[in-house]
Design goal:
60 residues, alpha+beta, two-stranded antiparallel sheet, globular, binds zinc ion
Length: 60
């Protein structure tokens, strides 16, 4: 969805323009609904990483 990103910490949809906080990790920008979510992400980004949105059924 254009203009919307999912907060990787709480799963909430966040509008890019209205994101309370952003963080870059591995070349990707993540958007957060609050500073608290960003801090949680920054503490342990790998916890919230998703290796692609497909669960299984991948040829890679
Ligand atoms: Zn959040």
């Amino acid at each position: 969805m254009f203009g919307k990103e999912e907060d990787p910490v709480c799963g909430m949809a966040v509008k890019k323009k209205e994101a309370a906080a952003t963080s870059e990790h591995m070349g990707k920008t993540y958007y957060f609904c609050s500073q608290t979510c960003k801090e949680k992400f920054d503490e342990n980004p790998m916890n919230y990483m998703k290796m692609g949105k497909k669960e299984g059924g991948s040829c890679h």
